[in-house]
Amino acid sequence: MEVIRDSAVLRKWIDAFHLQDYVSEDLLKIAEVHIYSSGEYIAKEGTHTPYFYFLVHGDSISYSYTCTGRIHCESYMSGFGILGQAAALWEQPAFNDVLALTECTCIALRMELCRKQLLEDVKFLRFVTYWMAQHVRENAFRHNPLEVRTAKFILQVAQGDIFRFNLSQCADILETSYRHLLRVIKQMCTVGLLERKGNGYRILNREELTRLSQGQIHLAGEEKEDS
Prior knowledge:
Layout: E1 2-4, H1 7-16, H2 27-30, E2 31-36, E3 41-43, E4 51-57, E5 59-65, E6 71-78, E7 81-83, E8 97-100, E9 104-110, H3 111-119, H4 122-139, H5 146-157, E10 162-163, H6 167-173, H7 178-190, E11 194-197, E12 200-203, H8 206-213
Antiparallel strand pairs: 1-2, 2-9, 3-8, 4-7, 4-9, 5-6, 5-8, 10-12, 11-12
Helix pairs in contact: 5-8
């Protein structure tokens, strides 16, 4: 992890995401920029973290392992998110590993400087509460069939009409097997929603893919997920 102590860089990220709107304290006085390399852990399960993070750039995954050894993805974040609500604010051990899938830039609030103030800051607590409520709503999405989850994920991370994402990581995020994910993507290609394009896929029919992501249509012959 690299720490950038440059007020101009910090201000750039604060202004880009309007972060000061969420916190009453002057962020220039209590925050710093942390950069994590791809494959580096931002937090480890069972450890304490001294920082509350605004993720402002990059992709990260929060996950744990079930008793059967399967990955449970708590959340996937791309571009903006918050980390450390419980572990940092209330000084509890992290209950997930948080891994940087790409290089990640975080605005880190040092808790020793501002924990008491933040826990009494109505503006900040409203923001965190809203974020956590949205997270609970989004987690309900995990009960949908894999074809629905996959379609929504493709639409979420595609750049323009191109979906180019590590499929092993995609399978972990969607909590399925790599083999089953490939079957679903192949079906999407067969029915004309996607086509293979280099090391990724091109979206051919965004309207129908959107309908699939909302559960309005289904892929014919979709099999049950691997156990």
